[in-house]
Amino acid sequence: MNLKKRFSSINENFRMLHTDDTLIPVMSEKVISWLPDFPREYVIVCIGTDRSTGDALGPLTGTLFSEMKPKHMTVYGTLHKPVHATNLNEYTDIIKSNHSNPFIIAIDACLGKTTSVGHLIAGAGPLKPGAALNKPLPSIGNIHITGVVNISGFMEYSVLQNTRLSVVVDMAQKIAELLDIIDQRLKYNYSSPAILLKQEKQQKI
């Protein structure tokens, strides 16, 4: 988790409350608008650890989405095999070895203002995990989706430990559903690479 500034000034961000009834259709279209029109391998990297309730958003999302059996996306980071600060470099190397020029969607939790808690934030561009740990971790993701799980500013690690599991589970389910919609909009002749299936074409099939 990155508890400090995680977005560069050039990133385009879009946020919605995770309980918003229109979240899935609206945010999925926004994320899809950032996807390339040419074939790419799609990789989902869910960052976090199951040792902290608040920081479990990423691996829980990875587990839920993996259970949906995505056809066009490879998932890294689950409850059983989390991707976190101490092994992110290793997984970055694995992804480079296993995928040719992948398009990466990074998933992570974050803390924010009281009014931001419960929001999902999608952004064009990478996020930088580990800033709060002062670790030299690589930025990751062509785009990213983060969930504001609790309030920042004071005793942040304790806040993470005391984040309500119900909120994290609900947010992870929404992100998994969002990724599933995007996966359904991709098409391919073989397992990879995939290309975006435009909405108008999908309706004619």
Structure overview:
By secondary structure, the protein is of the alpha/beta class. It has one domain: Rossmann fold (3-Layer(aba) Sandwich). The protein contains 6 helices and 8 strands, in the order E-H-E-H-E-H-E-E-E-H-H-E-E-H. The strands form 2 sheets. A 6-stranded mixed sheet has the order 1-5-6-4-2-3. Strands 7-8 form a two-stranded antiparallel sheet. The termini are far apart.
List its salient traits:
single chain; 205 residues; alpha/beta; Rossmann fold; six-stranded mixed beta sheet; two-stranded antiparallel sheet; 6 helices; 8 strands; globular; disordered C terminus
Number of strands: 8
Shape: globular
Helical segment count:
6
Q: Biggest sheet: strands, sense, closure?
A: 6 strands, mixed
Low-confidence stretches: 2-10, 201-205
Query: In angstroms, what separates the terminal alpha carbons?
Result: 41 Å
Total number of domains: 1
* Quaternary assembly: single chain
CATH topology: the name is Rossmann fold
**Strands ordered across the widest β-sheet:** 1-5-6-4-2-3
The chain-level structural class is: alpha/beta
Gyration radius from CA atoms, angstroms: 16 Å
Secondary-structure element order, as H and E? EHEHEHEEEHHEEH
Top CATH class:
Alpha Beta
What percentage of the residues does DSSP assign to strands (E)?
Answer: 15-25%
CATH architecture: 3-Layer(aba) Sandwich
